[in-house]
C-alpha cells in the first residue's frame, strides 16, 4: 500500500504574487493554499509532484514556460505557453518550497489514467468553481451557480469522489466551472478508496468560487 | 514624402491615411481633438445607472454637454457589460427617437450611436445618425455595409474576440499591441471593402474590452503604436475599471484618473475622447493639443503686450 495525496487549489492568476497589483488582494487566499501545500509535502514526501488542470488540449506540458507577460500585456513571443491554471499551480507549489521534480498535465476530465496520475504520490489539482455567482463577472449571473458550487464544496469536504464524478460536464461548462474536468479526473483516479478530507477554504472573494483542500487516501 | 511620414509605422493593408475626419455631416481637421459625450438610454449602465433613460433627461444632458463643448453625442441603448437583455426592437425604440430629436435640436452636433446591431444601425441612420460606434468589433458582419449605404462613419474596435456584453476571463495575449493593431486594421479593411469612406473610419483599442487593467494600461502606454498608423483613433477611458483598479477607487471617485488617462491618450495622438465629464475633458484635450502644437492656445497676452 502507498499513501496518496491531493491538494486542491484555485487557478486564478490574481493569486500570483505581483499580478494583483500593489495591494496584493490574492495574498490571503494564496497563503491558505501555500500552507496546505507545505503540509502535504511534509506529510507525503513525494519524489514527483504532478500538477493537474483542465484544458481542451490534453497533453503533458512538463518543461513548457509560463508567461505572466501575457496578462501584463508585455509578452512578445508566440511560443507555446503553459495553460494558466498549470502556471498558477506551479507557482503555488514553488511558494510552498518545492524544488523537486514537477510534471504538469492537462485533462478534459475523460480518458484512462495516462496522465501520469498513477506515478505520482501527490497531485496538485488546480481549478475553480463558477465566476457567475453574482454581477460583475464575465457574463450574466447564473442562479444555478451557487447551488452547484455548494455541491462541489460538500463533495470536496467529504472526500466524496462519486459526487465529483457526477458533476454534469455540460452544466459545468455553462457555469464556467474551470475545475470540473480536473476534479472528475481526480475522483476517477482515487476511485473507491476511503478519503480523509480537510477543507481549508471555500468562498468567492473576487466573484469566483475558490476551494482549497487536502485529500489523503491509501491504496 | 517627408521624413516624419516615412518613419511612421504603417499598416500596409490600408491605403494612405486620410488628412481629414468626416463624421456624417461634419468634417474635422485631423489635428482637432473631439469630445464625444456619453448619453445612455439604459436603466443599468455602469456609471449613470438610468439617469438619462427617459427622453426628457436625455435631451437635457445633450443640451448640457453641448454647452460644455461636446462635438459628438454617443447614444447607447444597451449597457456594455452583462445585464438585462435588451432586444433589437427595444434598442431601436430607445435610440432612434433620440437621434432624430438631437438632429433637430442640435444640428451642429455629430450624432453617434453605440450599437453592434446592423438593424439598429440602419434605423439610427435613417433617423440621421452620423457615426456608428461598434465597440463589439464587427460582431454583426452587416453593420459595415449599413455604414457604407448611408455614408456614415464607423468605429473599428478591438475586443480580443469577446462576444457582446461579456467581460474578460483570465485573458492573456501573446502580443497585445499586435493583436489590437491587427484587429482594428482588419476591421478597417473590411469596412473599406464594404464601401465605407476612408475618411470616415475610426480605430478604437477599446480599453477594458477583453483586457484586464494591466493590459489597458499597456494599451495606454503604447497607444502611439496605434495612432502612429495615421488613422483617427477614438479612446473610451471614462470611469472605467482600469482607472478604478489602478488607483483603488470606486466608481464615483475616478474623475482625476480618467482625466489623467485622457491626457496620456491625447498626448499620444488620440483624436476622439468618449467621456462622461465633457467640461473637464474639453479642457484637458485642448490643453494637450496646445502642448502637441496641434492648435494654438486660446489667448496669449502675458509678456506680449
From TrEMBL, chain A:
Residues 136-148 have a biased composition (Basic and acidic residues). This is Catalytic LigB subunit of aromatic ring-opening dioxygenase. Residues 129-148 are annotated as: Disordered. It comes from the Bacteria.
